[in-house]
């Protein structure tokens, strides 16, 4: 279907979000 992401794209996006969240969390903790 048009506009549907591939599994690889979804996994890459999820990993990017996870990395971003971790960096944000670390920054807030001041580590």
TrEMBL record:
Protein name: Uncharacterized protein
Organism in which the protein naturally occurs: marine sediment metagenome
């Amino acid at each position: 279907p048009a506009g549907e992401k591939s599994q690889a794209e979804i996994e890459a996006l999820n990993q990017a979000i996870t990395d971003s969240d971790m960096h944000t969390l670390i920054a807030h903790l001041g580590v």
